[in-house]
Design goal:
It comes from Streptomyces violaceusniger. Helix 1 runs antiparallel to helix 6 and helix 5 packs antiparallel against helix 6. The protein starts with a helix and ends in a 9-residue tail after the last helix. It has one domain. By secondary structure, the protein is mostly helical. It has six helices and no strands. Helix content is 81%, strand content 0%.
């Protein structure tokens, strides 16, 4: 279980930062300038800033495991949308959704190891 949580954390951290190094490729693929493609980074940052509090409230009544799985699904769907998009707008929607899932799952990932069995 710990290796899986570590792998998820690595994937999420990597997906956060990898766009910075690939801006010129994104701009070429989407047919926009590099500075316009840089909005993908901004949209992700905005999603990470506003998403976790909103999503945490939305998943407050769910068990932690279900909330984590839902956040990971939102993260994955966001990246699939972004990867398959042919326009900057759709790519930004995908990045925003991925940021919502990333921020929300980060909250649950930090709490999961502490939710093990009670000491005897």
């Amino acid at each position: 279980m710990v290796w899986l949580l570590g792998a998820i954390t690595f994937i999420m951290g990597t997906s956060e930062m990898i766009v910075t190094g690939l801006l010129s490729q994104f701009s070429g693929a989407l047919g926009v300038s590099v500075s316009s493609a840089g909005m993908l980074i901004t949209v992700f940052a905005v999603g990470m800033m506003f998403g976790p509090p909103v999503m945490s409230l939305a998943t407050l009544r769910l068990p932690r495991r279900d909330a984590l799985i839902a956040a990971l699904l939102v993260f994955a769907v966001g990246h699939v949308v972004g990867a398959l998009s042919s326009s900057l707008g759709l790519a930004m929607v995908g990045r925003f959704a991925a940021a919502l899932g990333n921020g929300t799952s980060g909250r649950h990932l930090r709490r999961t190891p502490r939710s093990g069995p009670a000491p005897s």
